[in-house]
Amino acid sequence: MSFLVVGMSHKSAPIDMLERVSLDTDAAVKLAHHVLETSFVSEAVVISTCNRVEIYIEADRFHGSVEEVSALLAEHAGLDRDELVRHVYVHYDEAVVAHLFAVASGLDSMILGESQILGQVRDSLQDAQAESTVGSVLNLLFQQALRIGKRGHAETGIDRLGPSIVTASLDAAGDVITGDKTRFLIAGAGTMSSLAVKTLIDRGVAPNRIMVANRTFQRAYELVATFGVSAVRWQAMDIELGAADVLITCTGASGIVFTRERIEAARGEREMVLIDLALPRDIDSAAGDVDGVTLIDLEVLSNRAENAELAQDIDSVRAIVADEVRAFLAARDTSNVTPTVVALRTMATAIVAAEISRLEARRPDLDEAVLADIRQSIKRVADKLIHSPTVRVQELTDGPAALTYAEALKDLFALDQAIVDAVTNVSGDQA
User: For 197-208, how does the pLDDT look when each residue is reduced to its tens digit (9 = 90+)?
Assistant: First the structure.
């Protein structure tokens, strides 16, 4: 069995393409179940964020799995498969480990080093655990990725310039954010909106200058109770929009919420900053062409991220990831080889015991001391015969030859696959 990821991100696809394949939590869970129903797949985890959709699987066949998973993603997005595959990347086995560790560490994010992705990876794993689409193999991989992501942030300063997309977007908005009379309207009351409210307050914005609107008023009111901001009903949002200097939106809607015409009517004669953190986008991109309006969306943030100067910290995190990838793969290779070694020793012990039993049955007259010497001699012969092969396979665990050699041992000594599997299961339980 091997790892496989089929994905699409801001690095491989334009924003409008990402909009079409974006998944809410329910859709991501449903896709994971559909993937699990395909041939060759035994485990599946789906990560869906504002700038990536990735399907991680454990599979026993490469090409068949890629084709079936790509077809499912294309079906979800309503795209022709040939159109989709132009923007899809595929990583296999060791490359999957390196990619996921980099993602969790913020190295593959739109805003380099942003820490929000770590929580999103954790949420994706927890959803997969709750839905039983993940087993021990991917669970271990994701747990290691989360640990490495935390390590990267703890040991370096990679997140100092961009702990989240929210922070980056507020930085891009400039001085208007800190204006004494600036009024803010937050559209949506989910995780991203909550983070926006918290970040504004942390930057000194008075809660009475922040309004929150959400289709479900109770969700908006939860932010009122938590942060002391004000709430407005969704139906009356245009009134507040007409007074807001900054609109921050992440509603989770499936289409445009704020058209150019709606923004133009609300702006009047003042300047406005529009921050769109949603995918699919909430604000019509044409709204950025209105005089006096500045639009900051994921595409703008992507362009800014390319100029971020975090070279030293990035190199440090990359070194951490590279070391952890090597350690993970070495441990995995060792765990794959160990059952064969244990099975070989078990077989040798069983043969010695069987031969001693036959000897005792044929020669009941043998003195116990003589029998003990014979028993010890046979055991030493067996140990010497299997010593070199087992030492050699352990020496090779750092490279791919270890697995080939282990398979050769199993075939040459005609090891019972049930014994190898039993050892594997016990090792897995203990891990």
Answer: 999 999 999 999
Q: Using the 8-state DSSP alphabet, how is residue 185 labeled?
A: E
Rounded Cα–Cα distance for residues 1 and 371 (Å): 46
H/E stretch holding 247 reads strand 246-249
As a whole number of angstroms, the distance between CA 409 and CA 345 comes to: 11
For 226-243, the pLDDT digits (tens) are 999 999 999 999 999 999
Is the distance from CB of 56 to CB of 47 less than 8 angstroms?
Answer: yes
Q: What is the DSSP letter of 283?
A: B
Q: What angle do CA 342, 344, 345 make, to 5 degrees?
A: 65
Q: Running DSSP on this structure, what letter comes out for residue 51?
A: T
- Which of these is catalytic: 31, 41, 50, 168? 50
Cβ count near 335 (within 10 Å) = 15
Give the chain's radius of gyration (CA, Å): 29
pLDDT (tens digit per residue) in 251-262: 878 789 999 999
Q: In angstroms, how far is CA 247 from the centroid of its own chain?
A: 30
What is the per-residue pLDDT across 264-313, written as a single tens digit (0 to 9) for each? 999 988 899 999 988 778 999 999 999 999 999 887 876 665 444 556 77
Distance CA 306, CA 286 (A): 24
Contact 412, 404 (CB under 8 A): no
CA distance 213 to 58: 42
250 is catalytic: no
Alpha-carbon gap, residue 331 to 94, rounded angstroms: 13
